[in-house]
């Protein structure tokens, strides 16, 4: 098989950039913990309201610098009373669904979590700027999908 | 000209393809007007029905029927006329696929299946929607095996020879398609259908999503590879040159078999149930597909330059001006390729692990596939349609039709540029995809999305309207060349199937040893999927009941 000289240069350039690129993504992911939301925890989708932490949804302070926010997504809204969290502290979001697949997406942040029934999605995030943020569902969940939203206040 | 029976089969495929195209694009233009509140739907019809129909009819039905029309014509042209069995099974494949299409479409119109073409559980559609989709797949398998049979007969009669490039690439696409479908067939047959008909109570949601995406990503390569076949084998003929390198073209194609399947997790990067290790491994495998893509880009530009210089183009870029810009068959495909440059770059962004969080399920993604499948693939198919239909009907592709062809591809480009740019920008700002209206009770943050020069409802609506006009011009050309245009009388009026010569003298034989490629593909699939899927089954949470939320 014959590779033209220019094609060799072109492909080597491509493959080297590929390696550099993947290394940046990989190092950032595994040594600096920049991973997308996820988690391996499971839950009975019919017993969400009896299972901790979703039996008491909302904000809980875990320690000085860490808060946990438990949210139940359902068609077409979020069971998450009083969403107020401080800026500059680590916020751990835990979300699950009692019915279909939803998302928990906070506009203008990197919080963009798929919510799958039977699973608990986790994401840690630190808000920089105080203000009111729009939360919305960006996974189609039925007729009221485009109404599914709420708000979080960062102080 | 190919034999009459094959022409008839191919024309029927094109007829179904363009019927789906007509309805699908109409559904598209309705959406942009519903979204900006200019249009109120009657009570019996809702936005998500229209969205489902738009996705299914364009992304699944138009593409599939067009692809088989192209394959049937090309295989008959390059390997010779079909035998009676190949013809019979091609017809059966057509009817089964069509039956499935009609079944699924009826369910969508009846409001029994507003689950979109991704049909994520536990949204539960009418069982016959899933049966319809399964029949579509089974039908394409029957058509695929007919073509594989035709190819095997040729191989038997031409022992030790490499098959023509078109046939090789067709078989590559079919191999990819059959391996890819295993995932969706498994989930539909063993999970969705028993659950939708009430034979089982619950469904393992995460498993169904993963099996869907095992299929969902190679599905886009099933659309793209036929376009690549045109780029590799048709374009050089239009330019008056040979295929740049037969062996590299074949190598690029087999690499697509290897690296388009074990990568589905990159559609599931922000969801639970898959550990970061497996997500990242599939991200790495996803990126490997860049290698054959770069090889294709190189081949294309090399072909352009060789042709331009042969026609007297000099200097660094002089050859560019010598390309046959007045030939709509070429210009359409060139524009299609140009759109694929930002399209491919966007794909790299989407698959970049943590970067995916910024764009996942936003309008950016919608913009992305309108400049991948919606233009590079669709406009290549349009460029093929211009000559494929008159070639099959024996009619002329008149000067008037050629001019209309230019109007069609230029309007499509402008419309798509406006609409997809608006979608990309809106998505970056956070506007979600698949929403009937995204004002969120006039929330200030949501209002901000639509205040840009490009990112507003008007740009998207103008783009969508131009696209629809363009689609109607194409429908006119299709109907004219299919039924009305004058018959070609003289050899000059005959429309040809422009198939380029490919020099196979330096092509190694192992490239056509399918067992090597199927074997490596299977090994990669096992590596990427065996452990995470086993975990999903063994550590499954209690399953989900079905929900009808529309």
UniProtKB/TrEMBL annotation, chain A:
InterPro entries: Ba3_CcO_II_C (IPR034214), CcO_II-like_C (IPR002429), Copper_CuA (IPR001505), Cupredoxin (IPR008972), NosZ/Cyto_c_oxidase_sub2 (IPR051403). Coiled coil: none annotated. It catalyses: 4 Fe(II)-[cytochrome c] + O2 + 8 H(+)(in) = 4 Fe(III)-[cytochrome c] + 2 H2O + 4 H(+)(out). SUPFAM superfamilies: Cupredoxins. Residues 62-155 form the Cytochrome oxidase subunit II copper A binding domain. Its main location: other. It holds the Pfam family COX2. The chain crosses the membrane at residues 9-30. GO terms for cellular component: cell envelope; membrane. GO terms for molecular function: copper ion binding; cytochrome-c oxidase activity. It is found in: Cell envelope. Keywords: Copper, Membrane, Metal-binding, Transmembrane, Transmembrane helix. PROSITE patterns: COX2 (PS00078), COX2_CUA (PS50857). The keyword Transmembrane helix applies. Subunits I and II form the functional core of the enzyme complex. Electrons originating in cytochrome c are transferred via heme a and Cu(A) to the binuclear center formed by heme a3 and Cu(B). This is Cytochrome aa3 subunit 2. It comes from Planococcus maitriensis.
From TrEMBL, chain B:
Residues 1-485 form the Cytochrome oxidase subunit I profile domain. The keyword Transmembrane applies. The chain crosses the membrane at residues 12-34, 54-76, 88-109, 129-153, 165-193, 213-235, 247-265, 277-301, 330-349, 369-392, 404-426, 458-484, 514-531. The keyword Membrane applies. Its main location: membrane. One of its GO terms (molecular function) is cytochrome-c oxidase activity. It is a multi-pass membrane protein. Keywords: Electron transport, Heme, Iron, Membrane, Metal-binding, Respiratory chain, Transmembrane, Transmembrane helix, Transport. Belongs to the heme-copper respiratory oxidase family. This is Cytochrome c oxidase subunit 1. It comes from Planococcus citreus.
């Amino acid at each position: 098989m014959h590779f033209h000289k220019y094609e060799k240069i072109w492909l080597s350039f491509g493959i080297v950039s590929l390696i550099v690129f993947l290394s940046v993504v990989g190092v950032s992911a595994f040594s600096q913990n920049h991973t997308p939301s996820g988690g391996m925890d499971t839950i009975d989708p019919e017993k969400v309201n009896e299972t901790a932490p979703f039996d008491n949804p909302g904000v809980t302070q875990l320690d000085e610098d860490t808060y946990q926010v438990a949210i139940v997504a359902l068609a077409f809204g979020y069971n998450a009373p009083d969403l107020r969290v401080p800026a500059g502290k680590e916020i751990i979001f835990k979300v699950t669904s009692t019915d279909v697949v939803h998302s928990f997406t906070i506009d203008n942040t990197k919080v963009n979590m798929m919510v799958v029934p039977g699973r608990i999605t986790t994401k840690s995030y630190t808000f920089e700027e105080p203000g009111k943020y729009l939360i919305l569902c960006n996974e189609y969940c039925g007729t009221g999908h485009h109404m599914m939203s709420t708000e979080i206040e960062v102080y | 000209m190919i034999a009459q029976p094959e022409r008839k089969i191919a024309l029927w495929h094109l007829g179904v393809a363009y019927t789906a195209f007509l309805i699908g694009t109409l559904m598209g233009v309705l959406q942009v007007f519903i979204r900006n509140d200019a249009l109120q739907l009657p009570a019996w019809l809702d936005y998500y029905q229209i969205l489902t129909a738009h996705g299914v009819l364009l992304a699944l039905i138009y593409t599939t029927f067009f692809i088989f029309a192209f394959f049937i014509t090309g295989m008959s042209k390059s390997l010779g006329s079909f035998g009676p069995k190949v013809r019979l099974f091609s017809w059966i494949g057509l009817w089964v696929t069509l039956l499935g299409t009609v079944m699924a479409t009826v369910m969508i119109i009846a409001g029994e299946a507003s689950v979109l073409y991704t049909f994520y559980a536990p949204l539960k559609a009418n069982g016959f929607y899933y049966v319809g989709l399964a029949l579509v797949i089974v039908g394409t398998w029957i058509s695929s095996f007919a073509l594989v049979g035709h190819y095997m007969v040729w191989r038997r009669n031409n022992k030790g020879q490499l098959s023509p490039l078109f046939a090789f690439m067709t078989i590559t696409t079919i191999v990819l398609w059959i391996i890819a479908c295993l995932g969706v067939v498994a989930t539909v047959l063993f999970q969705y259908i028993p659950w939708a008909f009430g034979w089982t109570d619950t469904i393992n949601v995460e498993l169904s999503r993963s099996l869907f995406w095992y299929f969902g990503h190679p599905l886009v390569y099933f659309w793209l590879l036929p376009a690549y076949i045109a780029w590799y084998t048709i374009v050089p003929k239009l330019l008056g040159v040979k295929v740049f390198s037969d062996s590299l073209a074949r190598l690029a194609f087999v690499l697509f078999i290897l690296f388009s399947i074990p990568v589905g997790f990159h559609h599931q990067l922000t969801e639970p149930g898959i550990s970061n290790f497996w997500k990242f491994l599939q991200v790495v495998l996803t990126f490997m597909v860049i290698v054959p893509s770069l090889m294709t880009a190189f081949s294309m530009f090399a072909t352009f330059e060789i042709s331009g210089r042969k026609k007297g183009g000099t200097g660094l870029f002089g050859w560019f001006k010598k390309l046959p810009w007045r030939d709509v068959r070429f210009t359409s495909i060139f524009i299609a390729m140009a759109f694929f440059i930002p399209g491919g770059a966007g794909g790299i962004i989407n698959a970049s692990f943590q970067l995916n969080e910024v764009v996942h399920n936003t309008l950016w993604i919608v913009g992305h596939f309108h400049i991948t499948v919606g233009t590079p693939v669709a406009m290549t198919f349009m460029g093929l349609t211009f000559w494929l239909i008159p070639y099959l009907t024996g009619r002329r592709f008149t000067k008037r039709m050629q001019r209309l062809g230019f109007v069609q591809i230029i309007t499509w480009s402008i419309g798509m540029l406006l609409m997809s740019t608006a979608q990309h920008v809106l998505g970056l700002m956070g506007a979600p995809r698949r929403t009937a209206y995204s004002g969120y009770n006039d929330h200030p943050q949501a209002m901000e999305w639509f205040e840009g020069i490009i990112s507003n409802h008007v740009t998207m609506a103008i783009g969508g309207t131009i696209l629809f006009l363009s689609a109607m011009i194409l429908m006119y050309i299709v109907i004219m060349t299919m039924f009305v245009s004058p018959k070609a009388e003289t050899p000059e009026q005959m429309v040809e199937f422009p198939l380029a010569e490919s020099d196979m003298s330096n092509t190694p034989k192992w490239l056509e040893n399918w067992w090597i490629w199927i074997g490596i593909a299977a090994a990669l699939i096992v590596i990427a999927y065996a452990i995470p899927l086993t975990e999903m089954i063994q550590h499954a949470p209690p399953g989900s009941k079905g929900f009808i939320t529309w």
